[in-house]
Design brief:
Helix content is about 55%, strand content about 15%. It is globular, with a radius of gyration of 18 Å. The protein contains nine helices and five strands; from the N terminus they run E-H-E-H-H-H-H-E-E-H-H-H-E-H. The chain has helices spanning about 15-25, 30-40, 45-55, 65-75, 80-105, 140-150, 155-160, 165-170, 185-205; strands at about 1-5, 25-30, 110-115, 130-135, 175-180.
Length: about 210
Amino acid sequence: MYFIGITGGIGAGKSEVLKFIREHYSCEIYLADEAAHLVKRPGTPVYGELVRLLGQEVLAPDGQIDRAAMAGKIFAAPELLEQVNGLIHPAVKKYLLERLEAAKAAGEKEFFFVEAALLIECGYLALVDEMWYIYADESVRRDRLRRTRGYDEERISRIMAKQLSEKVFRENCDFVIENSGSFEESRRQIDGRLAEIRSRQNQVKG
């Protein structure tokens, strides 16, 4: 099983790329954001640590950690962010590696994908077989975020300012999908790269 990380800035089209891959390839796909939600459910070690760190006021009536309340707490005390990430990110990585080992043991899928904007920062370069950077021009990304999420320019700029630069993404990734224009072109890039990987894998098996 070949392990591929999918990363890129907000609005680059990572979800669209993964939707195509999910529909056309034998694979398992995990989103780090979804995994982060799972590892902080009630009963998990991370849940207990977060409640101790942030207090009972971050809990929703059903006992789950309220994401908005947690974000508000961190916004009011930014020094908490590093501590929260120090709890969640290792747990997410452990969860994803467990899923990878389970998928390898099952032997039913060809590819294993993990998507997150922070894969490089969180040390996944040492874990994946290769890292893909989904790229789109900034103007295209801004337009997508305005149309699909209703973000204003100030919010878009604030989010983009916190993310890695295009230069850093390109320097740390093995393959770049240019996703500024027609998705038909993006599909050709995806198909071409996965065909190359299959060919290499078959040569190794041979």
